[in-house]
Design a protein that fits this description.
Elements lengths: L6 H32 L3 H29 L1 H19 L7 H32 L9 H32 L5 H25 L13 H6 L8 H25 L5 H9 L3 E3 L8 H19 L3 H23 L4 E3 L8 H22 L6 H22 L6 H7 L9 H28 L5 H17 L2 H6 L5 H21 L1 H6 L3
Antiparallel strand pairs: 1-2
Helix pairs in contact: 1-2, 1-4, 1-5, 1-6, 2-3, 2-4, 2-16, 3-4, 3-6, 4-15, 4-16, 5-6, 5-12, 5-15, 8-13, 8-15, 8-16, 8-18, 10-11, 10-12, 12-15, 13-15, 13-18, 15-16
Length: 506
């Protein structure tokens, strides 16, 4: 799984892991912070949340344009610096007045600008590593590994956000609202780690940083020449995919909004028995170690490697069984903690995904990237169907808030299952989509086209707020049905356009 990839992949992936850990730590509690600290209703908080997400994914368009002219490496460095300034400002506990609101909005602007310079350009550099013919066949799997690294950072983020907030309240005596800022401060430390990794391992990817230096120009791979017709064909194909991406992220990023609201307002506040083990991130890490050890048993080329992998697998299984047999009491379940399940599933399922598609590739039956994206939209519809089923018989959010002791709460398993299904969709769409852009984008417009991917993501994130405005007096089954219909229509569009999309990859 890890063999045959350029060394620069691992350096860039680890740099992105540090940045994403800080980002998702902040994001895990951000919507709740807006409502608690500023007293905003669900719709207004959702609008701010979705606008911020939109800017985060819109700014890479400008970042890509600048990188095409000045180099990807320069933009990445400037981006981290600007992001750091934003997170530092957000970390200041300024209260809940107008000045605090303006400071918070300024911080969000800095973070989005910095992310715009960092995020897309880092991914273009990853794609350019695979322009070398010896690595070209591993482009899709390379982006899957890169995406896995992102989610390693995201896996620990919700727990970090909750635990640091609790520590600030209990040990330092800060109020609940001020304690949120300690969770935001984590991003500052993670960015320092990220830039350190970037520069320490820079020699492994310096040749894809771009720029005007003669050294970079000499090391760069030959640029593929395309006719105007070929360029148009590729750009049109990418735009069609971007249109679908809008609705996927509109639906998927409900994890930080309506799905978090559902966790806070409709999900049981405690967990008992074996289920309670799932809310300890270190148990999830053990599961991940077990999954990778299991794959290593079959993939290791030496007997010693197979033996060590088997020993690790047996030890992990034995320890988890022991914990399951001796579990006692219950654990408190906070709404942000549910966001750990998506990155957990991504990291745990990535080797499964690579194994399946690797096997299909050997038999010449692997679906194209556009077809994987279409399947991903179908799976996303199933995820929201799970939520619709879970919501049958439940009150509206407004009625739930007014019900008091008469309110009905559901098992956390519904949300855990939904995140599993949505993760399957994400693995089919996101890394494959980024790989598709990297492969199909005309060479002269790689930064611009990667920026286009993020513009589509930005529009989708702006539309996330639709869920927030629906949250209130409308039946939950109707709320989830909106996303089911949008996902199904997007999948249908992809299948209708499939021949045109696949032609652009040849």
């Amino acid at each position: 799984m890890f063999k045959g990839h350029p060394k620069g992949l691992y350096a860039l992936a680890l740099a992105n892991t540090g940045e994403r850990f800080g980002y998702y730590t902040m994001l895990a509690v951000f919507a709740l912070f807006l409502r608690a600290n500023f007293g905003l209703d669900a719709g207004v908080a959702g609008a701010i949340y979705s606008t911020f997400l939109g800017l985060v994914y819109l700014m890479p368009l400008a970042g890509g344009i600048l990188a095409d002219k000045f180099g990807f490496g320069k933009m990445v460095t400037i981006g981290i610096t600007v992001m750091f300034a934003g997170y530092l400002l957000l970390s200041l506990p300024l209260g809940g007045d107008t000045v605090a609101m303006l400071a918070m909005l300024a911080a969000l602007l800095f973070i989005s600008l910095g992310t715009g310079l960092f995020k897309g350009n880092l991914q273009v550099m990853v794609g350019d590593l695979y322009n070398d013919p010896q690595y070209a066949a591993k482009r899709d799997s390379g982006f899957s590994l890169f995406y896995m690294a992102i989610n390693i950072g995201a896996l620990f983020a919700p727990t970090a956000a909750v635990k640091i907030k609790e520590w600030a309240e209990v040990s330092l005596g800060y109020s609940g609202n001020d304690a949120y800022h300690f969770s935001f401060a984590v991003a500052c430390a993670s960015l320092i780690l990220s830039i350190a990794i970037y520069y320490i391992f820079r020699p492994t990817f310096r040749h894809v940083e771009g720029g005007k230096s003669k050294k970079n120009e000499a090391a760069a791979a030959p640029v593929e020449e395309l006719t105007p017709a070929e360029t148009k064909q590729r750009v049109v194909a990418l735009c069609l995919v971007f249109a679908v991406v809008i609705f996927f992220w509109m639906a998927f990023h409900q994890n930080g909004l309506t799905l978090t609201y559902f966790a806070a307002e409709f999900t049981a506040r405690s967990s008992e028995g074996i289920q309670s083990l799932l809310f300890n991130v270190w148990n999830l890490v053990l599961v991940i170690v077990g999954v990778y050890a299991g794959f290593s048993v079959f993939q290791s080329e030496s007997k010693q490697g197979k033996f060590i992998s088997l020993a690790v697998l047996v030890a992990v299984v034995a320890f988890l069984v022991y914990k399951a047999l001796n579990v006692t009491g219950s654990v408190a379940v906070s709404a942000p903690i549910f966001q750990q399940f998506n990155p957990f599933y991504v990291v745990a399922l990535t080797p499964v995904s690579l194994a399946i598609f690797g096997s299909l590739a050997k038999r010449k039956k692997e679906p194209s990237a556009p077809r994987k994206i279409a399947y991903g939209m179908l799976v996303a519809a199933v995820g929201f169907a799970v939520m619709a089923f879970a919501s049958v018989g439940l009150l509206t959010p407004d009625a739930q808030a007014a019900a008091g002791d008469a309110a009905t709460f559901v098992s956390p398993n519904w949300l855990i299952s939904t995140y599993l299904v949505l993760t399957f969709a994400e693995l089919l769409l996101s890394p494959m989509g980024i790989s598709f852009v990297s492969k199909v984008a005309p060479p002269k417009y790689k930064g611009l086209m990667m920026g286009g991917w993020f513009v589509a993501t930005a529009i989708g994130n702006w539309l996330v707020s639709v869920g927030g405005f629906l949250w209130g007096g409308i039946s939950l089954t109707i709320v989830w049905s909106v996303f089911i219909v949008l996902c199904l229509l997007s999948a249908l569009f992809m299948f209708v356009m499939m021949k045109r999309l696949e032609a652009a990859t040849k």
